[in-house]
Amino acid sequence: MDEQVDLNSYLRAQSGGEDKKRGQASAGGSARDTAAEAAGASSDAGGTAGPGAGAVPVPGDPLSRTEAVLTLEEWREACQDCRRCALRQGARGVVFGEGHPQAAIMFIGEGPGGDEDRLGRPFVGRAGQLLDRILQAAGLSRQEVYIANIVKCRPPGNRTPAKEEIDSCYPLLAKQINLIDPSILVSLGSVAAGKLIHPGAAITRVRGRWHKLEGRDVMPTFHPAALLRDPGKKKPVWEDIQQVMALLRRLQ
Ligand code: SF4
Fold first, then answer.
1. How confident is the model at residue 3 (pLDDT cuts 50, 70, 90)?
2. How far apart are CA 203 and CA 190, in angstroms?
3. N or C: which end of the chain has fewer CB within 10 A?
4. How does strand 211-213 pair with strand 4-5?
């Protein structure tokens, strides 16, 4: 295993700061609770308005509802009106993610593009169609896995999301991951690797090797959009997916 990122420790540390700000005692509850608390605190890291930015939660902030949310569908509803960062202003809506609510594998990309923003679904453009073909070749379907992104609103002009936008949105993804509870995460591209593996992770260096995030196995690989630009990356991606499938078979 490579560098290990303990998401629970991260969430606990963040939520501790949040508790102090709120003057509340720690719930000391489940991982889901911890994620919920941490979600609020992370808004500080992003420097955005939200529960973590002050004593008064911003109306509509999904993080103000984390403790009451127990299911993935409830969390989807809670996230729909999110305005935690400026990305929402330029997007048609929040692209929450889709797939099996208890998927063993979760694919995490960068952010919605134009097609995804228009349809409200992740990975439905050309890159998404390529991901579908990769899944199909591996014997998987979209209905068996879960697909989401590091940020849930489309960055203007499909630019790379900024650090503060990623930090604002990550608590939403962290709770989503905890609710789905996959054994394996597949991070797609450098932005996802930079958040899930470690900051500044070079995808060319970290891909193809297993990493850990809160007890989950993480396989970073190239984003399907990169394969469209450089077909030479198809072979290494396929090798990475074969590792994922081999681990899945061992876990089942
Ligand atoms: S990108 Fe994420 S944090 Fe920002 S408004 Fe959309 S859902 Fe909220």
1. very low
2. 5
3. C
4. parallel
Domain that includes residue 229, residue range: 4-251
User: What sign for the dihedral angle of Cα 31, 48, 75, 161?
Assistant: negative
94 pLDDT higher than 70: yes
The model scores a pTM over 0.85: no
In the chain, the number of structural domains is 1
Q: What is the CATH number of the domain that holds 174?
A: 3.40.470.10
Atom of ligand 1 nearest to the CA of 62: 8
Across residues 42-54, what is the average pLDDT?
31
Residue 114's identity, in one-letter code, is: G
Residues with CB under 6 A from ligand 1: 79, 82-85, 87-88, 94, 151-153, 165, 168-169, 172
| Helix H or strand E encompassing 5 | strand 4-5
Among 66, 75, 79, 87, say which to mutate for ligand 1: greatest number of ligand atoms within 8 Å of CB: 87
Return the DSSP state at 140. -
